[in-house]
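One-letter codes give the sequence; the fold follows as tokens. Both lines appear below.
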Amino acid sequence: MTGSEPGFRFHVGALTDKGRVRSHNEDSVASIPETGLWAVADGMGGHAAGDVASAMIVEELASLGVPVSAQDQRARVLERLDRAHHRILAHVGGNGLSAAGAAVAVLLIHQAELTCIWAGDSRIYLWRDDCLTRLTRDHSEVAQMVAAGLMTEAEARVAPRRNVITRAIGVGAQAQPEMVGGAVRAGDRLLLCSDGLTEHLDAADLALLLSRPDPAADVAARLIAETLDRGATDNVSVIVVDCEAAPLPEDAP
């Protein structure tokens, strides 16, 4: 899939799989290059809860429209995450459910401005100049312990409560996404993923696969395949976005 923003053309691979263990897929993905938006939503709460929650988030984000600025783009996304949050709460209350919600990671690109908006432990990575950088930080119990110096990253990967998140869309009185910004360059490769990927692939694995000079769609497929080969105990979703400088119009000076 390809799309473009002024100054950039995007090549995208977006895939989701239920994995080897789960009976159904609670993840949802959105890839809308024409509005500069990509998202992974990792639902929780079981059938008719987690899958509904992640679908509601993607449905709201799909209504973004074409933003006039990066600030407008961010404001529209925050508004839609808030709407999704309250729709999920209403779904829980109206169907007698104990809980439902979803972790979400949203990547926004408007011209050369990049924004990450997220809640939970779905992640966004940047592969640039042969270096992998994680742009998000997990909202999880183990991430808090690592930040406090009470646990190492290696210990966090195998901790019994490693999947307990502290923020999610649809959980709590208000949505509490976090946001960071930056700039995108031609040649950048970005990865969005649910924790079903990072449960099995560490940073070295991701760097190896993202360094391949293959099209984004092939890299996304390889990431999914590698996770399935390693057991895929959870649903797994990935979006790979390659940023290419768009050619100037023929009549440009």
Q: What stands out?
A: The chain has one domain: 2-135+170-244. The chain has a mean pLDDT of 93. DSSP finds seven helices and eleven strands in the chain.
